Amino acid sequence: MAVSVSAPVLSLCYNQSGELSRRLGYRLPKKVGFSSSRRSVSYIGFGAEKVGRFRVRVPICRAVPPLLFKDLDADDFRHPLDKQNTLLLRAIPGLNEFGKALLGSMTEQIMLLENIGTSVLVSKNQLSDLHGLLVEAAEILNIEAPDLYVRQSPVPNAYTLAISGKKPFIVVHTSLIELLTRAELQAVLAHELGHLKCDHGVWLTFANILTLGAYTVPAFGQMIARTLEEQLLRWLRSAELTCDRAALLVAQDPKVVVSVLMKLAGGCPSIADQLNVDAFLEQARSYDKASSSPLGWYIRNAQTSQLSHPLPVLRAREIDEWSRSLEYRSLLKQANRISTVQKV
User: Fold this and answer.
1) Per residue in 202-246, pLDDT tens?
2) pTM (2 decimals)?
């Protein structure tokens, strides 16, 4: 997540071009994204059998109906680092008030119209199968389904906009749909829903605006911005771990979530069926071993300190470990079965 975006823009990994920020007249103080070496805006988000040009015709095949978490609260699956870093953000004096003062209704309207004018709104009558995946994921997580848009883009990405006073919406790029299976695509939608479930948009918006404003102030203001940026990036990385858990609660199979991360790290439609989740998890364990020495620890921190997302191998390891935890198993025991597999 680049600190130059001035609205709660949430997504899982790849950077988008800075086109939207330039249209809004914002400069990009620093590149903090996941994969691009250019200055760019990145969004918090995840990324078909191949879905092709939306040829989703049947619901996800499950051996049994998925579990429904009727009374699920965000803190039931929030990552400990997310809890810790959220408390640090809340401790910043006046963050809420300053953020509200800087975020005007005109900026919100520009961002909303920018998306509506360049994407396809998913509904019961438009790409109804994608709509069904979203509705089922929202029901599992006990959250109201936001709007969903499909946008033409060669960059595999998904992100969420939570605009004050308006219904939030998720945007999924066509190239991501081409890359993922239906189960993986639903895991991506669940990840985005996790950001909404945990109210990540509020803190992301205010902190982004505060950082952008501080960069326009010389000397002392820039020092504040750098300090806040470090706190923001730590929080963003921990928020991603929480939303990976939301993806697992919907997929209810850790290999589905790990497969998404693997494909976003180094996948494309032509080789997707050759990728091996177990090999990727072994790669994650080898990374832990390689970075366990003092020098490895230093290199690892330097490698990740300016990223808005944890490294894919670290996220894969985290979600694999949580899938075997007592916390996750306890949530599964408390859940109920959905009466129908697919609700549109």
Assistant:
1) 666 555 445 445 545 455 445 555 666 777 788 889 999 999 999
2) 0.77
Distance CA 291, CA 83 (A): 25
Neighbours of 58 (CB within 10 A): 11
Beta bridge partner(s), residue 150: 120, 172
Residue 223 CA to residue 220 CA, distance in Å, equals: 5
Question: How many DSSP H helices and E strands does the chain contain?
Answer: 14, 9
Burial 168-206 (b: 16+ CB within 10 A, else e): bbbbbbbbbbbbbbbbbbbbbbbbbbbbbbbebbbbbbb
CA end-to-end span of the chain, whole Å?
32
Catalytic residues: 192
- Residue % of the chain over a pLDDT of 70: 66
Q: How far is Cα of residue 301 from the mean position of the Cα atoms in its chain?
A: 22
Q: Where are the beta strands (DSSP E) in the chain?
A: 9-11, 15-16, 41-42, 67-68, 120-122, 147-151, 158-161, 169-173, 336-337
Report how far residue 191's alpha carbon sits from residue 178's, in angstroms, rounded to the nearest whole number.
Answer: 18
How long is the chain?
Answer: 344
Encoding tokens for residue 184?
A: 């993986």
